[in-house]
Amino acid sequence: MIVSASSSDTNPRLRIFGVIIATGLLLLLLALFRVQVLNAEAYGTREQAQSLRRIRMPSARGDIVDRHGVILANNRPSHDVVIYLDQLRGSKRQDIYQVVSSNLAVLAETMKMPVTLTEHEIRTHYQKRRPLPLTVWHDLPPQTQALFAERAAQLPAVDLVASPVRQYPNGSLAAHLLGFAGQAEQPADEDADEFYYYQADTAGKQGIEKTCDEALRGTPGGRTIRVNPTGRSVGEVGFKPAERGDRVTLTIDANIQRIVENALDHAPLSGGAELRAAAVVLDPRTGEVLAMASRPTFDPNLFTPGAPAEEVAWVLRNPASPLLNRAIGARYAPGSTFKPVTLLAALDSGIVKPTDTANCEGSLQIGNRSFRCWSKGGHGRVDAAGAIRLSCDVWFYEKGMTTKPENISKMAVAFGLGQASGFDVSGEVGGLVPTPAWKRMHYGERWWDGDTAQMSIGQSFLLATPLQMARATAALANGGTLWRPFVVRRIETADGTVVSETKPEQNRNISSPHFEFVRQAMLASVQEVGGTGHSAAVKGLSVAGKTGTAEADIRVDGATRRIKRTWFIGFAPYEAPQVAVAVVFEQGDSGGHTAAPVAGQIFAGIYGKSAERASGGATYAD
Amino acid sequence: MPTNRTFPLFKRMDWVLFAAMAALAVMSISFIYSASYRGPGQPMPQFYRQQLFWFAVGLAFYIAVAAVDYRLICQWATVWYVLAILSLVLVLVIGVKVYGARRWLGWGRMGIQPAEVAKLAVIIGLAYYLFHRTTEQRRRWNTVLGAVTLMGVPLVLILVEPDLGSALTLVPIVFGMLFVAGARGKHLALVALMGLCLTPVAWWHMKKYQRERLTVFLNPNRDPLGAGWNLNQSLIAVGSGGVTGKGYLQGTQNLLGYLPRTVTPNDFLFSVIAEEKGFAGGACVVGLYAVVVWRGLRIAADARDRLGALLATGIVGMLFFHVFVNIGMTIGLMPVTGVPLPLLSYGGSFVLVSMTALGLLQNIWIHRRNY
Q1: In Å, what is the CA distance from A97 to each residue of A100, A101, A125, B338?
Q2: What residue ranges do the domains of chain B occupy?
Q3: For residues B89-101, b (16+ Cβ closer than 10 Å) or e, as one string?
Q4: Which of A523, B50, B145, B239 is the most exposed place for a label (fewest CB within 10 A)?
Q5: d(CA B27, CA A587)
Q6: What's the CA gap between A287 and A408, in Å, rounded?
Q7: To the nearest whole number, what is the mean pLDDT of chain B?
């Protein structure tokens, strides 16, 4: 046994030793405080950054319906076969591409379908989007789905999933107005950062789909998942369902739209002329667009994922520009359809009286040039009403020059020409109403009397879109109210809460005591045998209208060719107009031959009557 | 009072010290469970049961060691020391190789790390050695040299295993004991200087992973996905725990495997506690160790003789140094080494060593007076 010597003194070294240890423990405590209290947020952020992944889930686009609720665009499920790369467990040393491709080979063998995924696609997906499914086949037809369920559903890591795909159940009906939707580009802003795994929305690329994209798209949802250090998902920590996009109700009447498109497709074009045309039907009481069509057309269903690339490419490259909405995106000289505007300007100026006549001998000498009337033989002596009914150019040459170009321009502008109409779908182009000042600025040349003469019959520099002409027609029909044309009537959420509702908007009111005179002249042009617009007449319906044929030079394969833009504008019923129509063909024989019968079909179709073909009598030019 | 002799022993025990130990043991079991937890219904390693077994064995050691007078135990100091050296030699010959180092004697879960046992043997040996020197002798250079030699033999043997972390823990223990024993400051400084001179040699002999750990300690962001992974993930775990923590079994860093699964129950158990219980939990752990250290120092001060005082000093030094290095490591204050946290970390050897050491402390306390 050790003999102990009692240690009564307190060793000062022990005290120092104690102090050192106490200091050490305090230091630990302070360091812990710094990490866990002062810097907790920063470390918390790092923890989330490395283990949380947010997956953006695109919402289903909202429906587009016509004024009666007929579906124009909605979604259908696309049944895709996907493979989950993070569920494929190979040994650690095995390359992921090897693992995936051997699994895909089995799948391809089972389904007897080739797999077209490239090594690059597989590797990129594995590295960047691991917890997301990788699509092997898009949009399987039902019998292949059955085959999958029967044979391949048990294969590891593969699944059949349904995703919404935009569809247009009526095919190309109102294609230009509806537009189409494609995959949105990934935004470059912080949104892309926040959603580590970004799944693109479907974005509207044209027409209503583009204009109302924000409403149609809805609110994307999101899933927040936790991943382990190898990037494998280990569970969901948050889920926010995507909210379906809003429902857009149009002013379009699908029925009228179909009538209009049908009429365009059956236009009496003489041999060889390509069908390039547009038609607009407005409600002259509100400015609502009841139908809008453009030719050639396309099927918006083509722009869904997995569509045949050649077909898409052809639509994009086709020289006839089938994607162009000619009703708002193309401008043509209005020709004689402008004459009602000239007439109103002439009468309003007070210098020209309705009873003023001109003697038409087939042409008029102005300065050292001869200006022809479309009727070579001439119309003889005609008054104002006759000049509209017969579309006599000579009367308008004479009276137009009397009226002065400024007055005509002013009236044209009052009718909404020379400017975009404010239509609520993107893609509208403006128009052109020339003035002497404008010509001096752009051509450095004075305004000749010949220019006035030409403008009086809707030529020279005048340009208007079919929609602008329809709008002016509506103003003629309703006695001077210029409406802003619109097509989006209402936007409401999926549960029916109205987000916005469009009220008709009156842009201008043209007041003139001579409206009734002009309208009557237009009525005669259609109703009376011998009127140029008679082929637009419909039995049992009082149609008023005006034809137009404007010459235009186009370049085809380096050579200039003179073609005829053929128009018809009109409204019905005369007593209380409900529809205003503008129809144009890029190439045709004449307004009376080509456009008026089409308008007649449209009126007849809308009112459920048969078009009254001008039987026996000659059909008229202009 | 001619009654049961053990009864007064219990009566004279330091119950505060025992309570702190018990609390740490409970935390150990709970958080080793949490560190092995893989989510509801998932199979998980049963480390916590094994640890429970070690605590049971440790308690037996504790009671045994506390009951027999420490002076009797220290009389056998030479035997303990030689046995420790022999086991260190033996482990180099027949030890089980794990991760390229021979540190284990025995098989599987029943393995023992002689390096851990050697720590205690050195403490007892040095206390005994210094106790037999007079105050004057203890101020001499040759005492210091003797102590350094006493430490040097096992240190070199442990280095050969290799186990740098364990080897280096001997240094501050011996320094602390020499200091309290009254060695001259300049002698200690000289030894420290010589040690520093050996650093380049040590660096030269280090394995690649050891060098990487040191470089990462100096610059934690150098290789966050490689050598810096453990440190960074531990920092994130501790830091993201915040003030109150994410809740028991809710530590995502641990649950998802960002904290390295293989070493979390041993080396990074503190990170799990700090993540799940926050600063409150972390401070609580530090507080419990503070209680242990405080009681230990009091025992050193009140010991009946220098032997007891030195023994207690060595034990307190050992416990403190392990706590400081391990917790410091989890928050980047110290480089990453495999130094375990006394009583908390999973592992039989150090649980037994810690409990034996605490038993000795009780022993010194119980026998501080003649009864």
Answers
A1: 5, 6, 11, 38
A2: 20-36+46-366
A3: bebeeebeeeeeb
A4: B145
A5: 91
A6: 24
A7: 89
First-to-last C-alpha distance (Å) of chain B? 11
Q: Which of B69, B293, B309 is nearest residue A7 as measured by Cβ atoms?
A: B309
CATH number of A53-250, picked from 3.90.1310.10, 3.90.79.10, 3.30.70.20, 3.40.50.2300: 3.90.1310.10
Contact between B305 and A16 using a beta-carbon 8 Å cutoff? no
- Give domain A254-606's CATH architecture: 3-Layer(aba) Sandwich (3.40)
The answer to whether B333 contacts A234, with C-beta atoms less than 8 Å apart, is: no
Does A4 touch chain B if contact means CB atoms closer than 8 Å? yes
Query: Is the Cβ of A2 closer than 8 Å to some Cβ of chain B?
Result: yes
Q: Which residues on chain B are in Cβ contact (under 8 Å) with A13?
A: 179-182
On whether any CB of chain A is under 8 Å from the CB of B296, the answer is: no
- Gap from A124 CA to chain B (nearest CA, Å): 21
Q: What is the ipTM of this complex?
A: 0.94
Q: Do B256 and A29 touch (CB under 8 A)?
A: no
Q: How far is CA A109 from CA A101, A103, A112, A143, B213, in A?
A: 12, 10, 5, 17, 50
Shortest distance, CA B115 to any CA of chain A (angstroms): 24
Torsion of CA A583, A584, A590, A591, to 10 degrees: 30
Question: Cis omega before residue A436 (within 30°)?
Answer: no
The percent of residues above 90 in pLDDT, for chain A, comes to 59
pLDDT tens per residue, range A546-558: 999 998 888 877 8
Which H/E stretch holds residue B238?
helix B229-241
Residue of B nearest to A228 (CA): B256
Nearest by Cα to A278 from A295, A265, A300: A295
- Residue B70, C-beta contacts closer than 8 angstroms, at least 6 positions apart: B307, B308, B311, B360, B363, B364, B367
The domain limits of chain A are 53-250, 254-606
Tokens representing residue A588 in the block: 């045709």
A37 vs B243: CB contact, 8 Å cut-off? yes
pLDDT tens by residue, A166-181: 899 999 999 999 999 8
- How far A19 CA lies from chain B's nearest CA (Å)? 10
Residue of A nearest to B369 (CA): A6
* Neighbouring C-beta atoms of residue A226, cutoff 10 Å: 19
CB contact under 8 A, B274 and A32: yes
CA-nearest of B255, B324, B265, B337 to B109 is B265
Asked whether the beta carbons of A108 and A83 are under 8 A apart, the reply is no
Q: A310-364 pLDDT, tens per residue?
A: 888 888 888 889 999 999 999 999 999 999 999 999 999 999 999 999 999 999 9
A32 with B282: Cβ contact below 8 A: yes
B68 touches chain A (CB under 8 A): no
pLDDT for A188 beyond 60:
no
What is the distance, to the nearest Å, from the Cα of residue A17 to the centroid of all Cα atoms in its chain? Answer: 84
- Which positions in chain B touch A14 (Cβ < 8 Å)? 180, 297, 300-301, 309, 313
Query: Which of B75, B176, B242 has its CB closest to that of A40?
Result: B242
Look at B239 and A35 and tell me if their CB atoms are within 8 Å.
yes
How far does B153 lie from chain A, in Å, by closest CA? 25
**B316 vs A: CB within 8 A:** yes
Q: How far apart are CA B130 and CA B137, in angstroms?
A: 9
- Listed in sequence order, the residues at least 6 apart from A456 whose beta carbon sits closer than 8 Å to its beta carbon are A338, A339, A342, A396, A397, A399, A400, A401, A403, A408
Q: Rounded mean pLDDT of A286-313? A: 88
Question: What value does the mean pLDDT take over residues A593-620?
Answer: 76
Residue type, B126: L
CA atoms within 13 A on the CB side of B102: 14
Would you call B235 and A44 a contact, using CB atoms and an 8 Å cutoff?
A: no
Q: Give yes or no for residue B257 having a pLDDT over 90.
A: no
